């Protein structure tokens, strides 16, 4: 019989850093509120949650690397909102954030969760930040807890 491992959704004792983009703060603050709510509901103590604000989504990987490399956190959650405009800027920012966040997770082995909305419109962003399309901040927090607990089993 195969041995099956799954990360529990109990956050007790976990230390989490949430890195949040200030750009499109009217969306990212909602993502942060959802993430903090879920972390609290799942047993992560308020004193074990650190929130770090960065200027924009492109800066998320750098701050995530600092947090992950510090040894202070079991998981890092990156929250941002990149809304398409009329230039290629969207592709550079969204792609850079995604690639950078993934690289930090692989290099540090600390779970670094991609909670960055990449949408065409403000309406789509708000819909994914607690509207009809769910709450990506909450989902990112759950993923962080699950991955941190799975990491403990695998390392």
From TrEMBL:
Its EC number is 2.5.1.78. The active site is at residue 89. Gene3D superfamilies: Lumazine/riboflavin synthase. Pathway: Cofactor biosynthesis; riboflavin biosynthesis; riboflavin from 2-hydroxy-3-oxobutyl phosphate and 5-amino-6-(D-ribitylamino)uracil: step 1/2. GO terms for cellular component: riboflavin synthase complex. InterPro entries: LS, LS/RS, LS/RS_sf. 5-amino-6-(D-ribitylamino)uracil binds at residues 23, 57-59, 81-83, 114. One of its GO terms (biological process) is riboflavin biosynthetic process. It comes from the Bacteria. Keywords: Riboflavin biosynthesis, Transferase. One of its GO terms (molecular function) is 6,7-dimethyl-8-ribityllumazine synthase activity. (2S)-2-hydroxy-3-oxobutyl phosphate binds at residues 86-87, 128. This is 6,7-dimethyl-8-ribityllumazine synthase.
């Amino acid at each position: 019989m195969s041995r099956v491992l799954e990360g529990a959704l109990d956050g007790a004792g976990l230390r989490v850093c949430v890195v949040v983009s200030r750009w499109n703060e009217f969306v990212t603050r909602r993502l942060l509120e959802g993430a903090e709510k879920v972390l609290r509901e799942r047993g992560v103590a308020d004193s074990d949650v650190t929130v770090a604000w960065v200027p924009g989504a492109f800066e998320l990987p750098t701050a995530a690397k600092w947090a992950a490399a510090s040894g202070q956190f079991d998981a890092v959650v990156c929250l941002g909102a990149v809304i398409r405009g009329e230039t290629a800027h969207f592709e550079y920012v969204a792609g850079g954030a995604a690639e950078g966040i993934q690289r930090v997770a692989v290099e540090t082995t600390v779970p670094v969760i991609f909670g960055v909305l990449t949408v065409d419109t403000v309406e789509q962003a708000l819909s994914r930040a607690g509207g009809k399309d769910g709450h990506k901040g909450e989902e990112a927090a759950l993923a962080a807890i699950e991955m941190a607990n799975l990491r403990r089993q695998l390392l």
